[in-house]
Amino acid sequence: MDYDAIIIGCGHNGLVAAFYLARAGLRVLALEQAAKVGGAATTDEFVPGFHFSTCAHSFVLFHPQILDDMQLVERGLRVFQRDPVQFHPFADDQYLLTWNDPERTRESIARFSRHDADAYASYGDFWQRAAQLFDPYLLDSPPTLGEFLRAAEDTPNAAVAHTLVTGTRRQLLDEYFESPRVKASLGTTFDAGSTDNAGGLLYFAFAAALSTRLSERGLAGFPQGGMGAVTRLLRQAAENAGAEIRVATPVESVHVVNGSVRGVALVDGSVITARVVLSNADPRRTFVRLVAAEHLSASFQRSVRGLRLNAGYLKLHCATTGLPEWRAAPGDGPQHRANVRICESLDDIDQAWSAARTGRMPIAPVLGLVCPSVYDSSVAPVGRHTISIWVEYAPVGLPQGVWDERRDETTDALIAQVARYAPNFPDIVSDAYLHGPPEIEARAGITRGNMHHVDMTIDQMLGARPLPACAGYRTPLQGLYLCGSGCHPGGGVSGVPGYNAARTVVRDLNRPASLRPSPTAGGHKPFTTAEGSRGRSL
Ligand SMILES: Cc1cc2nc3c(=O)[nH]c(=O)nc-3n(C[C@H](O)[C@H](O)[C@H](O)COP(=O)(O)OP(=O)(O)OC[C@H]3O[C@@H](n4cnc5c(N)ncnc54)[C@H](O)[C@@H]3O)c2cc1C
Predict the structure, then answer these.
(1) Would 66 disulfide with which of 103, 136, 353, 495, CB 3.0-4.6 Å?
(2) Per-residue confidence band for 522, with pLDDT thresholds at 50, 70 and 90
(3) CA 526 to CA 523: how far, in whole Å?
(4) Minimal CA–CA distance to 13: which of 399, 501, 364?
(5) Which range, of 46-55, 105-114, 436-445, 509-518, averages the lowest pLDDT?
(6) Distances (CA, A) of 85 to 166, 183, 243, 425
(7) Segment among 198-207, 300-309, 443-452, 516-525 with least mean pLDDT
(8) Whether residue 538 has pLDDT greater than 70
(9) Is the pTM of this model over 0.85?
(10) Pocket test for ligand 1, best of 493, 496, 500 (most atoms within 8 A of CB)
């Protein structure tokens, strides 16, 4: 064999997996189709002198243990912590500001409702408990939903676990708050479809578990140089550990002999052999494009076709000559350092979701603006700014041609929507670049531009992510593993799927084939090392 392990794709998870596999002494080759590593975590210069985090911009989910193992801080990672966290202007020029300090957030909420200000501490407590519930499963194989609930039974967190699994964000927000504005402001961070979707809360528990850990270290925020700076350091760490990384090398298919994986075939027709292959590509791409159908059962192929990839997003990158003059909070002030949310009510989220699901661009989508150049002078020329607008939601089903025809009108509509809150916005935008699902698919190689690889819905989480037959990083094809965001715990720049996949591979390669778990084994298996400890780092 040429290598012990080949990784298809150098998104951040592929790089994390490459690092841990190489550190475990394996010969590792990671192949990336694009000209640079990073996948959905890159920095690109769409306009000369302006550097944008093309897809992911917020470094809030990365697991600190992986950060330490890969020595990212020692290698030069610098992160600007956001404070205030969110500035939320409303059409009538009121605004809500949230801070890292809960007391300051409470004061801001009190301007809308005394009741809600009082409820804010218990709401925070709910999420702390949710994070505690999810935390043990981060660097471990995923539990099934039943195992997740059973583990919380007879503990003080049982009711929280039940709400996470069965509740919706609308129900939860209604339970704690009365002001529609407070709900709109606190309800915009779930990223999981309509406010009535089950699963959104569980996803947020995962995000809360990770972001709490990183915030405690003061390392959550905007990475200096954009998200591409993070993946450059991950590449450096993987290469220093001994992994070989090749860019501009697309993999055509997984090479299978007698039902077992033997390596990969490249687009140029050459074959590189390895004992195992890990795919950082999304599950749909992996099983539809990279594995020949004859190697997968009909029922598995049917489940792959049924994977849900309905959530579509846009990102509008703007090079600007100044900062927005917010009508609700004019002039200089902390509002310019916060993420800005534009969403009048929870109904806006639902309307945006249902429009996008039926192939239409929402009239008033929910917007999230970030301006990393306020913190990081390296990403824009002096006096200029980079403003990226995250748009929930966009139709994923538009054919490429139609999408291209819509590009200018969509850009204009988004700029006009911001102008309702900051009238100078159209004047300060000197260049704008709209990044829709087709561009995300083309640049990052993600099917339908799905930010999580597959939607974070309750039926595609924990021990069912992406599918029960290939949860836990193994797949039905002996020797093929998944290591990207389509696996537990899900999307986001966390490094966790890459870590868990590498650990699964190392364990499998270290035991005789006859003792390896069935490829289709999902569910939660406590990690026990030779010394009997649980959850030890690779
Ligand atoms: C618009 C957008 C905004 C986001 N914002 C945030 C955010 O602010 N914070 C956050 O934490 N997360 C965010 N996310 C989510 C996050 O970026 C992704 O979940 C994460 O980066 C995915 O990482 P990954 O390594 O699992 O996969 P990817 O980054 O998708 O990497 C997969 C890699 O595989 C490569 N590949 C695929 N097929 C082949 C092949 N045949 N041969 C060789 N290579 C191949 C691809 O080119 C790609 O490089 C965002 C995502 C999007 C799309």
Answers:
(1) 495
(2) very low
(3) 10
(4) 501
(5) 509-518
(6) 28, 16, 37, 21
(7) 516-525
(8) no
(9) yes
(10) 493
Q: Is the distance from the beta carbon of residue 61 to the nearest atom of ligand 1 less than 6 Å?
A: yes
Beta strands in 121-240 (DSSP E): 221-223
pLDDT at res. 187: 83
Whether 451 is in the pocket of ligand 1, judged by its Cβ within 6 Å, is yes
Chain centre distance of CA 378: 24
> Is any atom of ligand 1 closer than 6 Å to the C-beta of 370?
no
Inform me whether the pLDDT recorded for 199 exceeds 70: no
User: According to the model, what pLDDT value does residue 284 have?
Assistant: 98
Looking from the CA of residue 39, the nearest atom of ligand 1 is 49
Residue 108 CA to residue 410 CA, distance in Å, equals: 33
CB distance 207 to 192 below 8 Å? no
Q: Alpha-carbon distance 12 to 498, whole Å? A: 8
Name the class of domain 3-41+64-77+225-308+451-515: alpha beta
How far is residue 181's CA from residue 269's CA, in Å, rounded to a whole number?
A: 57
In the numeric block, the tokens 């890159």 are attached to 42
Cβ contact 454:308 at 8 Å:
yes
* Residue 157, token pair as written in the block: 């967190």
**Closest among 326, 295, 340, 288 to 309, alpha carbons compared:** 288
Return the domain boundaries, the chain.
3-41+64-77+225-308+451-515, 101-216, 309-448
Nearest to 422 by CA among 315, 314, 313, 320: 320
Tokens of 109: 């909420």
